[in-house]
Write the C-alpha cells for this entry.
Amino acid sequence: MTTPAIDTTALTRRFGDFTAVQDVNLRVDAGQFFGFLGPNGAGKSTTIKMLTGLLAPTSGSIRILGQDLESNSAEIKRQIGVVPEGMALFGRLTASEYLRFVGRMYGLDRATTLQRTQELLEFMQLADEEKKLITDFSHGMQKKVALAAAVIHGPKVLFLDEPFEGVDAVAAGTLKAMLQRMIARGATVFLTSHVLEIVERLCTHIAIIHRGQLVAQGSLEELRAGAGRAREPGSGPEASSEKPRSLEEIFLEVVGTDREGNRGVTAPEQELSWLK
Amino acid sequence: MAEVNGGVARPAYPEPISARTQLLAVAWMRWRAFVNSTFRRRPSTARQAVSLAFVILLRILVWPFLALLVVGPVVGSGFLAWDQVAHHHAHNLSSLLAGITLLWQFVAVNGLSMAASLSQFDPASLLRFPLRFGRYFVLRVMIGFLTPSTIVGCLALLAAAVGIGIAEPALAAPALLALAIYAWTNIFFTRMIGAWMERWLANRRFREVFGILMALVAVAFQFLNLRAPSHPPGAANSWLVRFVRVSHGYLDWLPPGFASDTILKGVHPFAAIVPFAALLASTALFAAVFAIRLHKQFLGEYLSEGASRLAPANAPSRVKAAAPQPKIAVSAPPPLAPPVLPPVVAACLRKEWLILRSNSAQLMGMFYPLAILVVLNRGIFSQHPRYLLPGALAYVLAGLLATLYNIFGADGLGVQLYLLAPVRLRDVIVAKNLLSLSLIAIEASLAWIVVAMLAHAPIPESTEVSTLLWAIFVVAANLTLGTFRSIQAPRKFVPGKLPQRRGVPGNRTSGLLVLLVLFGSLLLQVPVALLSRHFADPWLGAWIFAPFAILAVLAYALLLRNADRLILARRDLLAEELCKV
C-alpha cells in the first residue's frame, strides 16, 4: 500500500461555537489531481489552511507525504506549494524580486533561483513587467505570480485555493497544462474551485464538503456511480443509466440535501415573480 | 511558450536550509520593499514633478524636527547619567533608566500607526515558508530593529553608558555591558507587549473597553496636569520630584533597578552577580512570554473573530424546501407623509447612520473633546471666556473636519454602487455632508453649552456672534474644499498622513493644501483676535468673519450645483482610485 500524499483523520476546526470543519477524513494518493468542492462557507479554505499548516486544527491529525504535519511542519512545508486564499503576496516587490525571495526561503541556491525565476516569468508571460510592483498588477497577474511562487521549489504536493479565479482563458489553459505536466511527473495537486467544468476536466478524484462535513469522496467514476456518497439521499445511479452524470449534477444532488436527507434545500423552483 | 523545467524537478532536500539563507532573504526582501516604496516615484509629467517637489519640501521640514526628537532624549540621557554619577547621585540611575524605558514605550506606541502606514508587511505571512520556530522567533525579533523606538531607546542607553564612563571611567565597562542587556530587556518587553496587545485587540469587545480606558487615562492626565500645583522646576516639593522619590523604592525590584545596581556594583564583580542575574532573568522572562505568544501564532492560531460571528453549524437552514408557492396578496403599505428628503438622500443618510452607529470608537471619540473641555474649564482658561469659546470650538472642530474630506474615500470599493446605480452623485454628496454637518452641529453646540455653563464670567455677545460667523466660515470652507477634494483626489484622507500607495499625483499636493486650509481656517481666530484687541473693537471679528462666511457658503452652493458635472468628468478616476481590488 502506497503512502498517501494527504491523509487526515477526524479533522475538526471550531471557531467558538461555530464548527467550520467536522470529522473530515481525507485520503489523497500521490499523483492524484484532487478537486475539493463545496458551496460557499462549506469549509474548503479552512481545510486547506489546516492542511498547509496555516491554521491549527481543534482536533484530529494531518499527515502529508507520510509525515505528521504538527511535528514536522518545516520539512513538510518544504515539499508543498500553496496558493492561499488571499494570495499573500508582498505588494511592494516586483514579480522577479518576489520569486527570488521565495526561492531563497525554500532553500534554493542563488543560481537555481535566478534560473527558475526567469523561466517562470516567461512561462507566466510576466517577463515584460519586470519593473512593475506586484501591487500595481491586475488580479489575474497577481494570481500568476502566486502560482509561480507556489511551484518555484518544485513541490511534491500543490495546494491551490481557487487558482483560476480572475485568470484569463489563455493563461488558464497554460496553467492547466503546467499542472497536468506536474501530475505526469508524480506530483499531487489539491485544488478548490467553484468552476465545476474545470474540476471535471482536470481532476481524477473529488471530495465534496458541505457545512463542514465531507459528504462525498472518490474518483469521478465512483461519484457518478453513487459509490462515493457519504449518505444515501434516496437517489441512486439508476436515476441516469444512459448518460453519465456531470459533476454539476452530482454536486447539486449531494449538497442540495439537508441533514435529514431531504432534497431541494436550494429551492430552485422558488420564483421571484417581480423579475422580468 | 516557455517550458518550465524547474517546476517539478525534484531535489531530495538532502540538507536543511541554513538560517543564514532565510534570514538574509527576509532582510533582502525588506530592503527591496523599502527601496521600491521610497525611490520608485518617477516624475514623468510637470504635475508629478510638482507633487514630488512638495514631498521633498515636506521632508526637509519634517525630518529635522524628527531628528530633534531623537537627539533631545539621547543627549539628555547622556548628560543626566554623567551628572548623576559625577555628582554622587548615582542611586538615581534607576529612575533615568526607567525614564528611558517609558520613552521607548511611548515612541513604540506612537510609532505603530506610522509603521503600519509605511509597511504593508505582515510578519505572520512568513509562516507559510519552511521555517522552524526558533528561526521564526529570530525573524520576528529582527524585523523591527530599525523602528524609531528601538533606535531612540538604544541610542539613549548608549549615551547613558558614555555619560557614566566619562563621569567614572571604572564604571564604563559594566555600564556598557549592563545597558546592552537592558536594551535587550526593552526590546523583548516591547515585543511582548505588542504581541499580546495584538492578541487582545483582535477581540472587538476588548478593543472597545481598551479605547474607553485610554480615553479616560488621557482625560485623567489632563486633569492631573491642571490640578497639580505649579512649582519651579527642580523645587524640592515638585510633584515630579516626589513621584520619582516614591517610585525609586519600587524600581530597585524592577529591571531598571537591576541594571543600575549592576553598573554601580560593577567595580566589585562578585557584588554585581545578583543584580546582573536578575537583569538576565527579567530579560529571559520577557523573551519567554513573547515566545509563548509567537508559538501559538506559529502553530496556526486564528485571531480574527469573523468566523465566530457566523451561524453555528447546526443552525437550521433558513432556506426551506421548495413547496408550491402560494399566491401572497401583498397589501399596499399605508400612505406615508411626503418624505422630507429625496429617496436617494434618505437612503444614503440611513446607510451612513448605520455605519456610524456600529462604530463605537468614532462615537466615543466625539465625547472625548467635550471631556477635555470640562477639564480645561477648571484651569486658567475659564478666566477668559472671550478666548475660551473660540478656542473650545476650534478644538472640537479640528477633530471633526477630517470627515468632510472623505466623502468617497471611506466607502472604498462600495463606491462602485454609486457609479452603477441610477442615482445623482450630488444626492450622495448631500447625504454624506448632511450627516457630517449634523454631527458637527451637535458637538459644537454641546461644546458651546459646556463653555457657557462652566465659564467664570458671561461670554460677551460680540464674542458669541464673531465665533458663530467664524464657525460657519470654517465649516463651509472645509465642506467646499472637502467635497472638491473628494472628487478630485478621492482616496481616503487622514490628517498628518501622506498617501503611500502610488496613485493620483494630485493626492499628495492636495493633501498639503487641505492641511493648510484646515489649520489655517481654524487658526484665523488668532490674528483676528489680535486685531480686535489692537483696535479695541470687540465687534471687529464679526465684521471680518461675516463676508468670509457668506463667501464660503456661496462657494459650497456653487460647487453643489456643478457637482454632477465634476463627478462625471472624474468618473474614471473614482473607479481607478477606489475600485482597485
Observations:
- Chain B has a mean pLDDT of 77.
- The CA atoms of residues 201 and 207 of chain B lie 5 Å apart.
- Chain B touches chain A through 59 residues (CB under 8 Å).
